[in-house]
Write a structure and sequence with these properties.
Layout: E1 25-27, E2 32-35, E3 41-43, H1 49-55, H2 58-64, H3 73-88, E4 99-103, H4 109-114, E5 119-124, H5 127-135, E6 139-142, E7 154-160, H6 169-179, E8 180-191, H7 196-201, E9 215-216, H8 219-228, E10 231-238, E11 241-243, H9 245-253, H10 257-265, E12 272-274, E13 279-286
The structure holds zinc ion.
């Protein structure tokens, strides 16, 4: 995949940090740059709209980042259900049905279950995923949130595993703030480059893979970005994830006896909880 190199925000030398606004960065490993002041890390790459459409085509969900996103539906929903259970408690049962906006709604799995408790809307860049979600009846806006002109106001904006894919996540956070009603909530999950596991793995950390991962927060830099943009952070902590053995091991072990054995047992599709402490969930309120 050919991607245009460092032209805009990420011109390597002398670039303002999008989190703290300081002009003091150094080269980090694997083509990344790190702010000396706050520790925010970004990839030295600029992505045009054409680049993004190429990256987030069908291959992204079927072979590049995920092996088979549709086959993972049950398990991904199992994980989403945990978030939903937490988020629905933010709204008293006797009030109007709250409005929820998901940034990076992919194939609509979270929206599928969240519609039990919320009026749901998604934003997604992948044409294939947008079409799939719309066919299920979801309201989906296609494109880059920072360029879309949404008129509605929401009670909650959520974003799962999306911020790390965005070149200018500060614009997304400002848009989320703008789109929220007063006292509205924002819930975000992303990767944590400041976690013990990420620091232990260094340049071999599994989450370092530009051009799909371009913004690398820690819990400290994510909190800072939220607070700088008017949010009051309620909680920020590492979260559990759920994947199937298929998703976790298939790429390397498909032809092994071990894989054939577990496949024979029929357990390749059950949800396996895993926790490296390097994925964080942040809940904030529009103060
Ligand atoms: Zn900074």
């Amino acid at each position: 995949m050919r991607i245009s190199k460092a032209t805009n925000r990420n011109t390597i030398a002398n670039q303002l940090c999008i989190v703290c606004g300081k002009l003091d960065s150094k080269k980090f490993y694997n083509g990344l740059t790190k702010c000396n002041n706050c520790g925010f890390v970004w990839a030295d790459i600029n992505l045009s709209s054409e680049d993004l459409m190429k990256i987030y085509g069908r291959d992204y969900f079927f072979g590049d980042e995920y092996i088979d996103y549709l086959a993972e539906e049950t398990i991904l929903k199992f994980g989403f259900r945990k978030f939903l259970n937490q988020l629905r408690k933010l709204f008293p049962a006797n009030t109007d049905v709250p409005k929820l906006l998901e940034i990076g709604s992919a194939y609509g799995y979270f929206l599928d279950i969240a519609k039990e408790d919320f009026y749901v809307t998604g934003i997604e860049i992948s044409s294939d995923a947008v079409e799939y979600s719309r066919n299920k009846g979801h309201e989906i806006f296609q494109g880059d949130l920072s360029k879309l002109n949404l008129q509605d106001k929401y009670d909650i904006v959520v974003s799962f595993a999306t911020l790390e894919h965005i070149v200018s996540p500060d614009k997304i956070i400002r848009q989320a703030f703008h789109l929220l009603k007063p006292n509205g909530y924002c819930y975000i999950t992303t990767i944590d480059i400041g976690s013990f596991f990420a620091r232990f793995r260094g340049n071999k950390w599994r989450m370092i893979h530009p051009p799909t991962h371009v913004s690398y927060f820690s819990s400290a830099t994510l909190k800072l970005l939220m607070e700088h943009n008017g949010f009051e952070v309620i909680e920020c902590k590492p979260i559990w994830q759920y994947r199937s053995l298929n998703a976790l091991f298939l790429p390397k072990l498909e032809n092994s006896l071990f894989y054939k054995f577990v496949n024979f047992l029929g357990v390749t599709k059950i949800p396996i909880p895993f926790y490296f402490g390097d994925i964080i969930g942040l809940l904030a309120k529009k103060a």
